Amino acid sequence: MRNTSRWQWLPSAVAYFFKSTLLLWLLSLLYIIAGEGRRDLWPVLAGCVFYEAANLTLKVCSLKDPNFVNIAVSLLHSTVTSTSVMVVLLCEWMDKGAGKMFDHKELFSGIWSGAFKALCFSCGYFAYDQWDMLDNHLYNPWAPSILVHHALLLICFTLALYRHVTINYLILTLVCELHSIFLHLRRVLRMLGLRTEKNLRTKIEWGLHWLAFFSARVFVHWFITYKLIKDSSKFPHGIELPLAFLGMVGMNVLNYFLGIDLVKACQKELIKSS
């Protein structure tokens, strides 16, 4: 049993640490925008405001449970992001073809049409979500993995946006938001009491769930990892390759554990409930 009296300072320390890092992130962003004239980064702030407005709108509509509101806004983000990313990819595929799209130079230093703004807007969401979880204590202070995840994403996204590199690589990582729609939708329906185990709708939903998991998450992340390894010699000397590779290793590990959790949930809803 955890000795809470000895470690009672830890939850407060975790909160202060991540709030401080988020504040530093915001100050650096404002400095870059105002001090260095990087007006192209305004969609990051627009993303923060948009998702915070969505949060407040849900609360005005008498949805007082902060956990439900957070998940509902996450569902909105997954829908908006996956739609914008798929539009970006489709337009590039029609314009350049898959061969040129996934060339190393294109992925590393190129910027697909609309990709920069889409990445900025999604970056704004992760900043909003980090604050919302901190403000409403929607995390485990003894193992704040979600806060670490968001902090690392903010670092990677912001560095890429500042330096105009690996934008297209990061857009590819966001394809997984297509699968996240099913993750968030499942939780929203369950919290609303609208999810019935082992009916036809649930079976269809799980079929789409697994299709999206393997195609939009597992395959895409494996493909990115493969490209990083294959084109490693083409990366310039710097932090880009180590940061990208470690990030993808982390993504693949998270996908593994997510897959295990999904198998358990699927068995519970479709098999054990029979």
From TrEMBL:
It is found in: Membrane. It is a multi-pass membrane protein. The chain crosses the membrane at residues 12-35, 68-90, 110-128, 167-185, 206-224, 244-263. Residues 63-271 form the TLC domain. Its main location: membrane. GO terms for cellular component: plasma membrane. One of its GO terms (biological process) is membrane assembly. It holds the Pfam family TRAM_LAG1_CLN8. It comes from the Eukaryota. Keywords: Membrane, Transmembrane, Transmembrane helix. InterPro entries: TLC-dom, TLCD. This is TLC domain-containing protein.
